[in-house]
Amino acid sequence: MAHFYQPSGRQPFLRAPGIVIAVIALLVAIEAVLQLVIPARSEEIFYLYGLVPARYSHAFLAAHHLNGGNVLERAGPFFTYMLLHGGWMHVLVNCIWLLPFGAVVARRYGTWLFLLLFVLCGIAGAAAHLALNWGSPAPLVGASAAVSGLMAVAFRMMGATPDGRLAPLLSPQVATWSAVWIGINIVAGVTGLGTGRPVQEVAWQAHLGGYFAGLLLAGPVDRLRFRGIARVPKPVDSG
Question: Using CA atoms, how far apart are residues 142 and 172, in angstroms rounded to an integer?
């Protein structure tokens, strides 16, 4: 029978890894600046640093006599859109969502692989949104695609085999959780839930793009983790 070791003494209020707390603090700090310091410029910042699909559509740019910008200006929003949010409720929901799933992932993979997954899932979500909203002038903002990807990774970890290997993509647990998440997002997309404002509050295509990226990237990142462990020298037995 398994027993849980209960350490003695005062325990920390938050057990989440430091990198998860740091990301949450960064997202909240950026929202505080937008809301309290430069509220008049928030819409301008959304269009500059959010992901605006129209920025990548030559037909839209030509029709409106606009310049699409250089390579850096086009690539940057794939990263910076994750740092912006459409209000306190938006950022708080994402942070509450990030805390449990991000902690699970960060404990297994450590700081750098956690950040790699966060960024890659966020980029995948942005790419999915761009492909399905080509030419749209509405900016995409928020870390939800990245967090959705971390959730997918956590699902594969929670269904791990007894020897610690990630649950297969088509395992019953992963398939069930994925079906539920896909269903929720399809309902959001069909009903238009949360998309009545210029800044989308429920970017369901980005959620799914990030989620599937997390499912697929979990395996390769897990192999990177084990290679890192294998490079650590084994202790010498002096007995």
Answer: 30
